[in-house]
Please model this.
Amino acid sequence: MRIWPVASGVAWRTLKIVYTNLALFLPQILFPLFFFTAFAGGLSQVSRVPGFDFGPGYTAFQFCFVLVQSAAFGGVFTGFGIARDFESGFARRLLLAAPNRTGIVLGYAISAVVRWALVAIILTVVALLARMNVFGGPVDVFGMYLLALLINLCGVLWAAGIAMRLRTIQAGPLMQMPVFLMLFFAPVYVPLDLLNGWIEAVATVNPFTYVLEAVRSMLAGEEAHVALAFGLALGMVVVFAAWSLRGLRKAEAAG
Amino acid sequence: MSAIASQIGAVALRSITRTARQPASWIPPILFPVSLMFVNAAGLDASTQLPGFPTDSFLAFALAVPFIQGALFSTMNAGTDLAGDIQTGFLNRLALTSMRGSALLAGQLGGIILLGLVQAIVYLLVGLAVGVDFASGPLGVIVLLAFAALVSLGFGALGSFLALRTGSGEAVQGAFPLLFVFLFISSFNAPRHLMEVDWFRAVATANPVSYLIECVRSLIVIGWDGQALALGFGVAAAISVAAIALSAWAMQERLTRT
Model:
């Protein structure tokens, strides 16, 4: 029932706020570039560690992590906007006006995808200028971005669920800390095989590990864990979609 | 006790009490750097196998980072608290009293140094608890605490300057990403001589934060390295002197009696 007018309106408004406000626009672009620079530039010697065998090189290895990280945090940053809308009272007026409230969640999700798409393009251009090797074919590369996009959706749906339950920007740390921990408990700096101790145990059961390894394998043209990664990512999208819609119902009930 | 000493004492006590009463002000500066250290140390442990890596424990190598990262948080704490005083009008009311600007600044910084020392002791205990050997021994631990106090003073004064110039807690918080950039584009994750990307090594070499980290790292990993200590203390002293001078000037402007 009239979901698209609501979704497109919410998405348009969210994007307009972001792209006309430098304080919101610049961090989402600069932080991934900064992490990419710091990790790919400062840690390139790690590729000489015995057992490190990622063909395209360390720049490509870190590009994959930063791509997934930017996708996840792109979603979380959109969650901050949702919380701000509740604090300002706009979201309550929106709940009154929208003929189909599910369109509100959809609109925020669309805006998160568009926001991240620009980041992904800029990040890719910078990585290619830094002479990143891409060994995968067009299908691999498409799969890599598609998987990152699913992570972007997971990020926004998770953050939307939190924002709609707590309805305050003070919930920001609650939105980003679990995502930060999940990302950094994956094999960020070296492949899973080179991890030892507690981090290996944690990384082995962390779903982001398989997403990250699949993204890296597609960039290298040697697919590994791809079906598992897509299955996990799709599963998380479904779970977090239910989480965010339940959050919407709680926001409705709160009035 | 002289009037100025009692003024400093009163402001320092207020600064310490205010920080102690707000767990959000002191728990993240202690927990976050330690968490990041454990995650990085676990993920980068394999890099100790690189020829020329100064230690076989990445945790010992990484233990230097929380000392400097915690001090960066001091910048935020000092600045945000002082900006709060400006925004609420507390500083204007103080300007009506006989309180001297220098006493206000010194008291504020005294509280920050104490927080910096508490942080440093926690990081030391964490290091000892996970089996890190301090190559410089007990005397090195004392030097490390003195260095932590000096670095906290420098970054605390920097935060105070930002607060006094802008009068806004948000503006002080907005400077945090910039300080974080200084941390990441330094030798915090790798020794400079092992960095393969020339431009990154050049930037890390020009970055004063590298020398702060390497000073702490030398005491933990190497022992007594005169050059690292001289550079670290020199950079920390230079930051402190410059930041205190700027803060004193900004305080004078802020407390101008009309």
